[in-house]
Amino acid sequence: MTLDHSERTNSMPGDTPAFMPDRTSDVPIFEQICASFRGRIRSGALETGARLPATRALAGDLGVARATVVTAYEQLVAEGYLASRRGSGYTVCAMGEVELSPGASAAPAPKLSERGDLLLEAGQPDMRLFPHRAWAKCVARLCRTRPEDMLTGCGRFGHPELRQAIASHVRDWRGIAARPEQVLVTSGATEALDICLHALASAEGRVGVEDPGFPPIRRFAEAQGRRTRDLALDAQGAEVPRLGDETDVVVLTPSHQYPLGGAMSAGRRQDFVRWAAQSQGWIIEDDYDSEFRYAGRPIPALAGVDGQGRTVYIGSFSKIFSNSLRMGYIVAPEGLIDRLAQAMRMKGARASAMPQAALAEFMQRGEFYRHLRRVRRTYAERHRTLIERLRRDFADVGHVEDHHAGMQVVLHLHPDLCDQAITAAARAGGVGVESLSTYSRRAGAYNGVVLGACLNDLEEQAEALTRLRRAISSTG
Question: What gap in Å lies between CA 387 and CA 292, rounded to an integer?
Fold first, then answer.
């Protein structure tokens, strides 16, 4: 990045920062803009309350797209350096409001495991982007005005206001027309799956699971004593069970298949709806990260196009908001409300009452959606950069498909390489990645490395990929 060290520290707040982007650098321009403003804020060159240049004006001065400047400003808002108020633009926060200490380096500390390894774990959000201050204000306001809601008032199936907020969310984002009474709040996707299988799977039937797919789903079904059936994948999505093969429940990830990525075709979705109607079977739709679609609008949920009412929708806040809240939900078709509610009564509610009212208010006030928009922009940049780097630096060992969605990317390896040997070497070198072959029960069907696209910032990502490259070379 090219910086002008003669910049005037007494410049007016609205002046363009004395900085020009380095277009030859591997560091994206929006990150360069962020780094420049971070440095000026920490040094005191930009004082508390100073107003930043308008996005359109700064974009013109720097010769970049306005969207690039908006992305940089919103990233700084997420980090606590800037505040954004409608009609007032962006202003500098007090340093006490910044999550990082004034003496911290411009880049956040690398995302490390307990052993000190760099992580490229699939499906993991970057909790450094969590809106701590906005969430704390929401909780504090609730404690002052309605303290009883923090411990009571949730009811057996979740806080009424949270159920209403979730119903609005799935209507607006996932195309599911649901009443609050159809929403059951759970302690996460695992409890939601437990309830659904308990209510829907028969003792003599089988549970269809995607192959490759998320291994805990199969293990969880088998731990309940259910027989499972593998649903192989093709270009359209998971294969549809044959009528009469004893499959009575299928668990699908149609909006973004895990781990391969990609969305189920519209035709295959209709095939599953017809199968469920004809076989009197049930579809459990696990929609774990559908909000993270980086091109166009999110694909409507399968539950939103199932006119037969045989799809149960499972959602979670762990990928969007926080993996510490342990909060998920079920959206039941009208005809299944009583059946699923009865299963939930039998097992007992596990979701904590304390965060439910706060989360409802957080969603109602729009803070949840502001956070979602911010992390989508950040994750989109990380996802795009990861794919670009893999295609540029790893083309000799494999290929990558860009599905413009999700929190993971698969590097499909050439047949002469072994994914399990590579991931073992990568872990030994301090990089946590997963073998694609371990997601399938078909020996030799898949060979690749599953990498998380969202957990690491771009500097951490680059270092992790350097170590991964060394691991691949060591196994050759």
Answer: 16
CB 67 within 8 A of CB 75: no
* Residue listed under structure tokens 């803009």: 33
Using alpha carbons, list the distances in angstroms from residue 120 to 299, 446, 462.
Answer: 26, 20, 11
**Distance in angstroms (rounded) separating the CA atoms of residues 280 and 187:** 29
Give residue 386's pLDDT.
Answer: 96
Torsion angles phi and psi, residue 51, rounded to 5: -90, 135
8 Å CB contact between 113 and 119:
yes
**Residue 291's beta-bridge partner residues?**
none
pLDDT recorded at residue 94: 65
What is the spatial order of strands in the sheet that 237-238 belongs to?
183-186, 328-331, 311-316, 282-286, 247-252, 206-211, 227-234, 237-238
Instruction: Work out the average pLDDT over 67-73.
Output: 81
The Cα–Cα gap between 114 and 104 comes to: 21
Both tokens of residue 249?
A: 């429940």
Separation of CA 423 from chain center = 23
C-alpha distances out from residue 350 to 155, 219, 344, Å: 12, 21, 9
CA distance 243 to 129: 47
pLDDT of residue 298: 67
Rounded Cα–Cα distance for residues 393 and 409 (Å): 15
Instruction: Name the band, by pLDDT with cuts 50, 70 and 90, for residue 15.
Output: very low
Residue type, 444: G
Mean confidence (pLDDT) of the chain: 84
Give the helix/strand (H/E) hosting 230. strand 227-234
- Burial group, residue 300, by CB count within 10 angstroms (0-12, 13-18, 19+): middle
Helix ranges (H only) for 263-347 are 266-279, 302-305, 337-347
Structure confidence by residue, pLDDT tens digits, 266-277: 899 999 999 999
Q: Tell me the pTM.
A: 0.74
